[in-house]
Amino acid sequence: GAVVSQHPSWVICKSGTSVKIECRSLDFQATTMFWYRQFPKQSLMLMATSNEGSKATYEQGVEKDKFLINHASLTLSTLTVTSAHPEDSSFYICSAKKRGRGDYGYTFGSGTRLTVV
Amino acid sequence: DAKTTQPNSMESNEEEPVHLPCNHSTISGTDYIHWYRQLPSQGPEYVIHGLTSNVNNRMASLAIAEDRKSSTLILHRATLRDAAVYYCILTGLIQGAQKLVFGQGTRLTINP
Fold first, then answer.
1. How many CB atoms lie within 10 A of CB B51?
2. Do A93 and B34 touch (CB under 8 A)?
3. N or C: which end of chain B has fewer CB within 10 A?
4. pLDDT for the residue B95
5. SS3 of B48, please?
């Protein structure tokens, strides 16, 4: 199988603080992980592509200094929302692609619901 | 990016087949057709994928048009647990990387 664990599943933080979300591939190595954001009643929006051992590639319009991504190992990527504000409240979802697998095998985490108060 | 077009919503009855259409007229020869579904407050779940030939797995079937400009996801016998948003996605190289870019999807409602 291919399991992706995302933690925490929900978090409430005060405006101005930073929040870290972890995404782990439990039974496979993931050279590439993806981070998405989803607002209520909307589709997933790709924020960035995280590559192990190198800098993340951010989609147009996503602030790299606000959404810090670190992919230090083949099984862990983290997303840190810095100086969070209420407009950052959203459902954040990570996805991992199994190393060596063909053009399939995108496994998603269960998501993190961030509420900034 | 190669885009897909899906109906916003569909409704079906429990234990009946469901055919979810997807148009992708700008698909390129190397794009795979993927289907994912998302239940409320969960991450998306892989359903099926294909390139040219029709595909079957334990969850669903994927029928791909001969010109590959459209495809249909078939749930053979819908259950209440199949109520979800279904996304049809093309994967190929975008800006040198393979990534899943989601459209709006089809919200499927299953009536008991």
1. 13
2. no
3. C
4. 58
5. strand
- In 3D, which of A97, A14, A19 has the Cα closest to residue B100? A97
In degrees and rounded to multiples of 5, residue B81 shows phi and psi of -75, -10
Distance of CA B7 to the CA centre of its chain: 11
pLDDT for residue B94: 61
Q: Do A97 and B103 touch (CB under 8 A)?
A: no
B28's CB contacts (< 8 A; 6+ apart) are B2, B92
Q: Say which range, A52-61, A104-113, B56-65, B96-105, has the weakest mean pLDDT.
A: B96-105
CA–CA dist A85, B92 (Å, integer): 35
Inform me whether the pLDDT recorded for A105 exceeds 70: no
- Sign of the Cα torsion A50, B103, B37, B51 reads negative
**Measured between alpha carbons, how far is B65 from B33 in angstroms, rounded to an integer?**
11
Query: pLDDT tens digit string along B50-65?
Result: 999 999 999 999 999 9
From chain A, the residues in CB contact with B38 under 8 A are: 44
Q: The tokens 């459902």 sit on which residue?
A: A91
Neighbours of B108 (CB within 10 A): 21
Which of A50, A60, A108 best tests the B interface by mutation, with the highest count of B CBs <10 A? A108
- Look at A100 and B89; give whichever has higher pLDDT: B89
How far apart are the C-alpha atoms of B54 and B108, rounded to whole Å?
Answer: 22
Distance CA A19, CA A64 (A): 15
Whole-number pLDDT of residue B2: 60
Query: CB-based contacts of A63: which residues, under 8 Å, 6+ apart?
Result: none
